Recover the amino acids of this structure.
């Protein structure tokens, strides 16, 4: 029996390693081509990171671009320091923490249901699903939130079960880390409040038995949270810089119809998993939902099952006076899911919005994993042949989900011209082209503020490179008027005409890639034809 148990553990851990390896592969594979560009918001994160690395001035909060928690930028700076500035090093924190979240999903799923199957299937869905995969390949700080939440709640549940001090410290530290990740985390303490009520209901004398450990948890959380709270104290404008602009409570947004607006935003938020997804090509593959069809159906069944189980255990507690710790599982999952949707449906900009609700993503996948696990563990408890058929079918379904999402991401989404446009692919083409121009030659990049950032980021320190606004053409003063180059990110006929009047010998050229993205150059010594 011991050998059988040992062999089972080896098989489970081996499978987990393969799932994590698969997830890492899908997050690193073709990272320079998919997504097809680096969006300016990603580049802003990179510029802040590069500046911090060069000056040593790391910040808890970076105020530019509507303000961003500093942890992600500081992690990028760390990557730049050791690996240089590149697309890979810019996205390495997303890749790493997106991959670690796969491990966390296994641990949390197993802790919740005491079944390896829930943990393994949850980890697999986290590894291959388009939703987590996409944000694990984009340099947005939101990807840190799923990582923090799965580990914070894993250690908290484990702490309550084991009563170990270290587990309470780790749980508090991970939860405190959340405030340094993404603005949507700020609603997460509401989950703790609901879960505390559940602990009191499901454990006899919970506060009396655990109050010292709760205090340790609170201290660990406070220590990690303190620097950000102090930053908000010193700069209170940082706290609500972005939320005030897009809040559904703003009269400019709801136009006096708050209830109607809330129903609409809540419906869009919930519907994105199965019906009509995020319409932003950076965050989804429109118009499809954020979950594939099979995972979406499993998610719905898991959600409904969890609601039924919650009602069941509440009845046991209040009607039959039976305390059952399984109540905590469904209280956590349902409160986590709906509370982490709040940052999305309390806004009224670009809904559905997969990024604002990224904190709910792990729970949606756990609901799906719960459904698949049910078939694996329960429906298959019949004859040997029936068990074999059902489990084989489930494996085929999961493999199909993996292949489907791979093809969807790398085959269709990454090669769609709308994706290229959403990520401003032409800016990376300009960035690459600027590198090919001789260092001694003056290079003038004409672009607006956000457009120039990706180009500047990947050409930091490149000599004789100048960035000019379209309205400041008088700043184009090359040292050698017969040997310089002007690069435009957009075809602006007014700018082109003005430059040709100033420099009559300029020749115009357009470079177009396979996805239809273009950039434009003017040069006195250009010799090749205009259109590629």
């Amino acid at each position: 029996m011991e050998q059988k148990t040992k062999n089972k553990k080896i098989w489970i851990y081996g499978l987990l390693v393969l799932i994590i390896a698969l997830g890492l592969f899908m997050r690193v594979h073709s990272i320079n081509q998919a997504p097809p560009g680096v969006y300016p918001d990603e580049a802003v994160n990179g510029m802040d990171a590069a500046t911090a690395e060069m000056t040593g001035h790391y910040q808890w909060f970076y105020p530019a671009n509507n303000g961003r928690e500093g942890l992600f930028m500081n992690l990028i700076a760390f990557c730049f320091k050791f690996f240089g500035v590149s697309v890979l090093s810019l996205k390495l924190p997303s890749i790493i923490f997106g991959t670690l979240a796969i491990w966390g999903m296994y641990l949390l799923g197993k802790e919740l249901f005491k079944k390896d199957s829930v943990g393994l299937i949850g980890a697999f869905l986290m590894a291959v699903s388009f939703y987590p995969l996409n944000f694990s390949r984009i340099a947005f700080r939101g990807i840190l939130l799923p990582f923090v939440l799965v580990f914070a709640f894993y250690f908290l549940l484990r702490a309550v079960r084991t009563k170990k001090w270290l587990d309470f410290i780790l749980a508090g530290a991970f939860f405190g880390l959340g405030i340094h990740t993404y603005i949507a985390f700020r609603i997460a303490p509401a989950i703790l409040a609901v879960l505390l009520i559940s602990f009191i209901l499901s454990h006899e004398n919970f506060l009396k038995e655990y109050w010292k450990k709760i205090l340790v948890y609170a201290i660990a959380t406070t220590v990690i949270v303190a620097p950000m709270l102090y930053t908000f104290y010193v700069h209170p404008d940082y706290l609500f810089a972005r939320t005030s602009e897009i809040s559904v409570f703003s009269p400019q947004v709801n136009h006096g119809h708050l209830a109607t607006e809330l129903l609409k935003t809540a419906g869009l938020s919930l519907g994105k998993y199965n019906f009509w997804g995020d319409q932003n090509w950076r965050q989804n593959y429109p118009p499809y939902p954020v979950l594939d069809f099979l995972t979406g159906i499993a998610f719905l069944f898991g959600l409904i099952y969890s609601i039924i189980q919650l009602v069941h255990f509440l009845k046991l507690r209040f009607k039959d006076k039976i305390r059952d710790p399984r109540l905590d599982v469904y209280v956590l999952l349902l409160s986590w899911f709906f509370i982490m949707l709040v940052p999305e449906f309390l806004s009224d900009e670009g809904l559905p919005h997969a990024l604002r609700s990224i904190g709910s993503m792990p729970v949606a996948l756990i609901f799906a994993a719960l459904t698949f696990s049910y078939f694996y563990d329960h429906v298959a408890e019949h004859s040997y042949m029936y068990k074999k058929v059902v489990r084989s079918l489930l494996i085929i379904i999961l493999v199909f989900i993996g292949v489907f999402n791979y093809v969807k991401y790398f085959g269709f989404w990454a090669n769609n011209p709308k994706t290229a446009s959403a990520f401003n692919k032409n800016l990376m083409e300009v960035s690459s082209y600027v590198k090919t121009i001789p260092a001694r030659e003056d290079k003038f990049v004409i672009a607006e503020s956000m457009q120039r950032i990706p180009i500047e980021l990947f050409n930091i320190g490149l000599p004789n490179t100048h960035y000019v606004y379209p309205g400041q053409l008088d700043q184009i003063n090359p040292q050698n008027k017969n040997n310089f180059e002007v690069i435009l990110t957009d075809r602006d006929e007014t700018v082109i005409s003005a430059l040709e009047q100033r420099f009559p010998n300029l020749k115009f050229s357009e470079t177009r890639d396979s996805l239809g993205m273009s950039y434009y150059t003017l040069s006195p010594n250009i010799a090749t034809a205009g259109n590629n």
Q: What stands out?
A: The chain has two domains: 2-419, 424-523.
